[in-house]
Amino acid sequence: MSQDDNVSAEIPDWSREQVRSFWDAGPKLLRSIRRYQTAKKRGGVWAAMSARYWVIIHRFWSIVSQCEIHLHTKIGGGLRIPHPQGIILHPDVEIGVNCMIFQQVTLSGPVVMGGHVDVGAGAKLMAPLRVADHSTIGANAVVTKDVLSGQTVVGVPAKPI
Ligand SMILES: CC(C)(COP(=O)(O)OP(=O)(O)OC[C@H]1O[C@@H](n2cnc3c(N)ncnc32)[C@H](O)[C@@H]1OP(=O)(O)O)[C@@H](O)C(=O)NCCC(=O)NCCS
Questions:
Q1: How far does the centroid of ligand 1 lie from the alpha carbon of residue 18, in Å?
Q2: What is the mean pLDDT of the chain?
């Protein structure tokens, strides 16, 4: 996992969320959240029924992946969760565009992530904190302080390298 300079921190790349196969749990879970939020914004009877349908789909993929991402979470476009197993996101987190989150990551409270932030497997981000654009959190890091733009932090507690 190394930062790709061509990824935008502002313009969402929706192709990153594309579902590639039936058991593509991450994109499927994300799609249920996107469709639920769209239905809720639309309002009306059909939208309410659609929202209920996507709640069931969300439950299914949440159980399959043992992952907790709430239906109301603010997520910028282009999030990649290639292995969603064990990802736990507090409902108050905010995620910028084109981020990537690996398995077993916990965002413990109101964490605000900028655009194009990559979070390595097993990392824990202890709120409240901000992670700025184009930064990287190393695998198994425990982040207790704000991360600056373009920084890579590793370790427990996480320090820049
Ligand atoms: C943080 C990360 C992006 C750094 O990659 P990098 O820029 O290539 O850094 P390097 O491998 O050159 O390591 C630089 C230093 O940081 C240390 N380091 C790297 N990653 C570390 C980590 N996660 N925890 C603790 N130290 C780490 C290295 O030991 C090295 O230390 P040294 O200079 O004392 O020898 C990468 O190591 C990482 O953790 N990626 C996450 C990948 C992941 O979760 N993949 C999931 C796939 S399923």
A1: 28
A2: 96
